[in-house]
Amino acid sequence: MPIIDSHAFLEGYLLPGYNQQAGQVAQQMQARSVDRTILISARAVQADPISGNRILRAMLDQAPGLYGCLTAHLNRVDASLQAIRELMSSRKMVAIMLTSTVPDEPLHLLVADEVLNACRRYQKPIYLNTPNAACVDVALQLAKTYPMHKFVMLGMGGADWRTAIAAAHQSVNIFLETSGAMDRSKIPAAVELLGAHRILFGSGSPHRDPVAAVGLLEDSEVSEGDARRILHDNAYRLFNLEVVDEE
Amino acid sequence: MRFFPAAQRWPVNLLAFADLARVLASTGLPIMVHVETPGEITALASVLGDYPAAVILSNVDAPLLAEAVSALRLFAQWHVETSRLLAPGNIKLIADTVGAERVLFGTGAPSRPMASAINTLRFAGLTDRARSQILSENALRVLNA
């Protein structure tokens, strides 16, 4: 079954030899039968949105199956806006992630507004970290305020995954990404309430091995059709990869 | 005997736990302790450093990895289980540093997926011998099963 990992990082891992460069990512993908990976620059998240996103963009051409999610840092708004203008017209950059200094804390809505307005012209999905219910609440507010954007809740609420599912039930422009809590109950619960069409497979690699993330789905007892949608079809459609790959 | 200090909200160096550990020492029973935050393993050393039977650190994940390896280097009776070691390179780091015989396979089932732990071990880059030790041999030895 084809796999798109919609949540992985370039750099930022404690152990050497993992996801430091495109070749290492590609090698891991091949060994684990992952066909496509959407990478986020850890350097852009933790330090510099301009250099981090530029390095990421340059890496995407070095191996097949790699795509980028640009990081817009709400504590570095000007630099983030510059990175958006410079890089988001690239088809290989398929999403934008909003983040702040402390990823576990909810985003500030006023600052997020400025960046989201700059993102409108690109019409690409917006990633939001949702490791807990407080972040889910803000993500839901943003999703309702910006119905023209599609939002991806990274980690689907962590241990508060029930809150994330409820939020996605309230707003049809919310997608749930499956990294976060390794709880066998969460994917079946999401499929039952939402259907499988708004759930995306993601690992958080290299902080979690993609095969461990696949294991969560394997043990979730969802149908083969739903597993295919979650592992591949939903992301393929959401990120418009048919068009991207034609480039 | 298995202990869950964080879930029950007591520090691992609680004097009552030390008393209990002294009683358990005479039975030779292995002790498994669920750890969650940095510093817990270090604090545990003052209570279980000289425990005569096996001590198994449970729930160790990447942020606790360095502390766990340091503890396993210090105490030959200490082991670690794999249920939260789901990042690439984690299990291999422990096996290469202190030996595969100190690692026990764990899943966290039923709430956590067994397939995740199995898949991660399969792709951990270990020898067949090391994988066999982790999957069963070590547990059989440590738990006297």
Oligomerization state: heterodimer
In helices, the fraction of residues of chain B equals 40-55%
User: Helices and strands of chain B, in N-to-C order?
Assistant: EHHEHEHEHEHH
- Given helix and strand content, the structural type of chain B is alpha/beta
State mean pLDDT of chain A (0 to 100 scale): 95
Compute the average pLDDT of chain B: 96
Instruction: Write down the overall geometry of chain B.
Output: globular
Question: Characteristics of this structure?
Answer:
A: 247 residues, alpha/beta, globular, B: 145 residues, five-stranded parallel beta sheet, 11% strand
Q: Overview of this structure, please?
A:
The complex is a heterodimer of chains A (247) and B (145). Chain A is of the alpha/beta class and 247 residues long. Chain A has 11 helices and 8 strands. In chain A, helix 6 (133-145) runs parallel beside helix 7 (161-170) and helix 7 runs parallel beside helix 8. By secondary structure, chain B is an alpha/beta fold. In chain B, 46% of the residues lie in helices and 11% in strands. Chain B has 7 helices and 5 strands; from the N terminus they run E-H-H-E-H-E-H-E-H-E-H-H. Chain B has helices at 5-8, 15-25, 40-48, 65-74, 90-98, 114-122, 128-142, and strands at residues 2-3, 31-34, 55-58, 78-81, 103-104. In chain B, helix 3 links the parallel strand 2 and strand 3. The two termini of chain B are 14 Å apart. The mean pLDDT of chain B is 96. At the A-B interface, helix 9 of A face helix 6 of B.
